[in-house]
Amino acid sequence: MATWTAQSFTDLVNSTLPAIRKDKLNDIATDLRRYHAAQKLLKMGGDGPEWRNRKIRGGLYYPVNYITAGDDNARNIGFFEPGNFNQTDGTIAGQVGWRFLRTGAVYDRKQALVNSDENAIFDFIGTKEYQMEIGFVNLVEANVWDGPSGSTDDKTPFGFLKYWLAYNATTGFYGGNHASFTSGPAGLSATTYTRLKHYTAQYTTVDDADLVAKMFDAINLTGFMGIPNKPIKGDASDNRNLEIDTTYDTWSALYRLLEAKSDGVVRKDLVLNNGQVMFWNLPVIEVPYLTANHSTSDPVMILDWSDIAVVGLSGADVDQTYREIQAQPGVFERYKERSANIVMHNRRRQTLIAKSDPMSD
């Protein structure tokens, strides 16, 4: 017996409009499952994504200032011992240049007329603006995790793997000047100022003896707080906001390591909490951008997000509403510009552990 469908009846097809689902657009516009850096650094407002807690200031650049040493005036003394006090130079200043992002949307007036009244299934202009926001968030995600292609790239913000964090296979504080920026991040050489180096290590196996042990050491050895009751506060909080960011390969291997230990052995370091991998109460997050772009090196980044900031030039933001393009009558465009660069104020509170150099992925 033949199988009949509604479309099989020609008269029925010709006399019936298709069912229209208004204002429904299922999103398959992105390759990444989540945008972790964008979620942490952006907030969604009525006019699209905006930076969260961005530091705004004027001037030629954003200064990054450090105190590098105390003086040598403190000593144990006896009765009537004369004083002998000296001054010691102990401050340095780095420079982080301004960076700018632009996005926009365009439409022809005739397109808007076609997409009007009862003929509109969904908002055409609104869709163009949504596409604009997708492009902006994609750009932010790449800027934060990677960054500039090299020292001649004066447009891309200073991201993590291609600027602030330098791979080194040796375990310890060996994250010095990035290979692409030999003068050092913010123009301060970690060769000269060795306390600017961040923690590094190389791992080959996701097990207790290799990666887990190195994560444990990194978390504990990077907890720099300075003297108590400091009279001058730094940019980073004394209450660290640590998070472990990595690829799916490493995250899933840690998950399976936990499953293998589910034979009654109680672990205090690596645990599951509602399906989330936790290491010493710190979330281990699979970052889709790292999975998509760094699945060979499988970096494990133990980041203190209280030390990471977005900085911008005062007065540089622009919100241009729709205006007609003079050379194209009837065509309207709008654009947004935002000033934003990424700063790690205290690199030695950060960690990069990887199987190989992420720059080679």
Overall description:
The chain has 361 residues and is of the alpha+beta class. It has one domain (32-67, 90-227, 234-361): phage-related protein like fold (Alpha-Beta Complex). The chain is built from 8 helices and 18 strands. It has helices at 10-15, 36-41, 109-114, 124-145, 160-164, 208-221, 248-260, 288-293; strands at residues 42-45, 48-51, 55-57, 62-67, 91-96, 100-108, 172-175, 198-202, 242-246, 270-273, 276-279, 282-286, 300-304, 308-313, 318-324, 331-339, 341-344, 351-354. The strands form 5 sheets. It has an 8-stranded mixed beta sheet. Strand 11 (276-279) and strand 12 (282-286) form a beta hairpin.
Gist of the model:
The chain is α+β, with helices and mostly antiparallel strands and 361 residues long. It is built from eight helices and 18 strands.
**What is the strand arrangement across the widest sheet?**
7-8-18-13-9-12-11-10
Shape: globular
The structure class reads: alpha+beta
- Mean pLDDT score, rounded? 87
- The low-confidence runs, each spanning 5 or more residues with pLDDT under 50, are none
Q: Can you summarize the main beta sheet? A: 8 strands, mixed
Question: How are the elements arranged and paired?
Answer:
Elements (H helix, E strand, L loop, with lengths): L9 H6 L20 H6 E4 L2 E4 L3 E3 L4 E6 L23 E6 L3 E9 H6 L9 H22 L14 H5 L7 E4 L22 E5 L5 H14 L20 E5 L1 H13 L9 E4 L2 E4 L2 E5 L1 H6 L6 E5 L3 E6 L4 E7 L6 E9 L1 E4 L6 E4 L7
Parallel strand pairs: 3-14, 8-18, 9-12
Antiparallel strand pairs: 1-2, 4-5, 6-16, 7-8, 9-13, 10-11, 11-12, 13-18, 14-17, 15-16
